[in-house]
């Protein structure tokens, strides 16, 4: 009987630990979200991983990548604008039509 109480005590300690750390609330919220999904996903484990954030990179990495993406988008837009300007300048120096070359 003492062995049963010791195991019960360990379980209770572990449950309190999970509750204190917010694990139980988070799991409950994710499971409720899965329950409330109108169309259940084919892979429930992937759904849980996605909603728990286990499938993605760490938060600091995500922020660094977002900043890098924003910077690259800005460079891309500048490059597109420069490309348009250069094409316009080039068009000024190119002949209007190829018929003039044939004469």
Automatic annotation (TrEMBL):
This is c-Myc-binding protein. Keywords: Coiled coil, Nucleus. GO terms for cellular component: nucleus. It comes from Microcaecilia unicolor. It is found in: Nucleus. Residues 62-89 form a coiled coil. InterPro entries: AMY1. The gene is MYCBP. PANTHER family: ASSOCIATE OF C-MYC AMY-1 (PTHR13168), C-MYC-BINDING PROTEIN (PTHR13168:SF0). Belongs to the AMY1 family. One of its GO terms (molecular function) is transcription coactivator activity.
């Amino acid at each position: 009987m003492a062995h049963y109480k010791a195991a019960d005590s360990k379980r209770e300690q572990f449950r309190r630990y999970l509750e204190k750390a917010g694990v139980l609330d988070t799991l409950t919220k994710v499971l409720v979200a899965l329950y409330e999904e109108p169309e259940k996903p084919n892979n429930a484990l992937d759904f849980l991983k996605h909603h728990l954030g286990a499938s993605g990179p760490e938060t600091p990495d995500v922020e660094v990548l977002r900043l890098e993406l924003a910077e690259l988008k800005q460079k891309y837009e500048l490059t597109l604008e420069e490309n348009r300007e250069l094409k316009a300048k080039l068009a000024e120096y190119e002949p209007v039509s190829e018929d003039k070359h044939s004469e």
